Amino acid sequence: MKCIQCQSERLVHNAKAVDYIDFGVKRPLKLELDSNPDAWVFKGTTAGELNATVCADCGFVMFSMAKHDAERLYSIQREANG
Ligand SMILES: [Zn+2]
After folding, report:
1. What is the distance, to the nearest Å, from the Cα of residue 39 to the centroid of all Cα atoms in its chain?
2. Cα 62 to ligand 1 centroid, rounded to whole Å
3. 2, 35, 43, 52: least buried by Cβ within 10 Å?
4. Using one digit for the tens of pLDDT, what is the confidence trace for 58-70?
5. Who surrounds ion ligand 1 at CB < 5 A?
6. pTM of the model
7. Nearest 5°: phi and psi at 4?
Protein backbone atom coordinates (compact mmCIF):
# COMPACT_ATOMS: atom_id res chain seq x y z
CA MET A 1 0.00 0.00 0.00
CA LYS A 2 1.17 3.50 -0.85
CA CYS A 3 0.10 7.01 0.04
CA ILE A 4 -2.27 8.17 -2.70
CA GLN A 5 -0.87 11.70 -2.44
CA CYS A 6 2.94 11.21 -2.45
CA GLN A 7 3.36 7.46 -3.17
CA SER A 8 5.36 6.92 0.04
CA GLU A 9 5.25 3.46 1.63
CA ARG A 10 6.04 4.84 5.11
CA LEU A 11 2.53 4.49 6.49
CA VAL A 12 1.05 4.23 9.98
CA HIS A 13 -1.73 1.63 9.87
CA ASN A 14 -4.86 1.16 11.99
CA ALA A 15 -4.74 4.51 13.78
CA LYS A 16 -8.09 5.03 15.52
CA ALA A 17 -10.17 8.13 14.95
CA VAL A 18 -11.66 9.02 18.34
CA ASP A 19 -13.71 11.76 19.92
CA TYR A 20 -13.46 12.76 23.58
CA ILE A 21 -16.75 13.31 25.37
CA ASP A 22 -17.39 14.30 28.99
CA PHE A 23 -14.85 13.34 31.67
CA GLY A 24 -12.21 12.36 29.15
CA VAL A 25 -14.20 9.36 27.94
CA LYS A 26 -13.33 8.58 24.35
CA ARG A 27 -15.37 6.93 21.68
CA PRO A 28 -14.51 5.82 18.15
CA LEU A 29 -15.64 7.91 15.21
CA LYS A 30 -18.05 6.07 12.94
CA LEU A 31 -19.81 6.44 9.65
CA GLU A 32 -23.48 5.59 9.79
CA LEU A 33 -26.48 5.23 7.56
CA ASP A 34 -30.18 5.08 8.50
CA SER A 35 -32.45 2.57 6.80
CA ASN A 36 -35.46 4.65 7.86
CA PRO A 37 -34.19 8.27 8.14
CA ASP A 38 -37.66 9.84 8.37
CA ALA A 39 -38.61 7.91 11.53
CA TRP A 40 -38.75 9.84 14.82
CA VAL A 41 -37.06 7.17 16.92
CA PHE A 42 -36.28 3.84 15.26
CA LYS A 43 -34.19 4.95 12.33
CA GLY A 44 -32.50 1.60 11.81
CA THR A 45 -29.02 3.04 12.08
CA THR A 46 -26.09 0.94 10.92
CA ALA A 47 -22.58 2.14 11.70
CA GLY A 48 -18.97 1.18 11.17
CA GLU A 49 -15.89 2.40 13.00
CA LEU A 50 -13.26 4.33 11.10
CA ASN A 51 -9.67 3.20 10.84
CA ALA A 52 -7.02 5.58 9.58
CA THR A 53 -3.81 5.10 7.65
CA VAL A 54 -1.46 8.07 7.96
CA CYS A 55 1.47 8.88 5.67
CA ALA A 56 4.63 9.56 7.67
CA ASP A 57 6.10 11.64 4.82
CA CYS A 58 3.30 14.05 3.93
CA GLY A 59 0.72 13.57 6.71
CA PHE A 60 -2.08 12.58 4.36
CA VAL A 61 -4.82 10.60 6.15
CA MET A 62 -6.76 7.81 4.49
CA PHE A 63 -9.85 6.43 6.22
CA SER A 64 -11.29 2.95 5.87
CA MET A 65 -13.61 0.63 7.76
CA ALA A 66 -13.95 -3.12 8.21
CA LYS A 67 -15.15 -4.77 5.04
CA HIS A 68 -18.16 -6.36 6.75
CA ASP A 69 -19.25 -2.91 8.06
CA ALA A 70 -18.88 -1.41 4.57
CA GLU A 71 -20.96 -4.28 3.19
CA ARG A 72 -23.70 -3.61 5.77
CA LEU A 73 -23.80 0.11 4.85
CA TYR A 74 -24.02 -0.80 1.17
CA SER A 75 -26.97 -3.11 1.90
CA ILE A 76 -28.80 -0.30 3.72
CA GLN A 77 -28.24 2.04 0.78
CA ARG A 78 -29.39 -0.57 -1.73
CA GLU A 79 -32.59 -1.23 0.26
CA ALA A 80 -33.29 2.52 0.49
CA ASN A 81 -32.87 2.99 -3.24
CA GLY A 82 -35.03 0.01 -4.12
ZN1 LIG B 1 2.16 10.83 1.58
Report:
1. 24
2. 10
3. 2
4. 999 999 999 999 9
5. 3, 5-6, 8, 55, 57-58, 60
6. 0.74
7. -75, -10
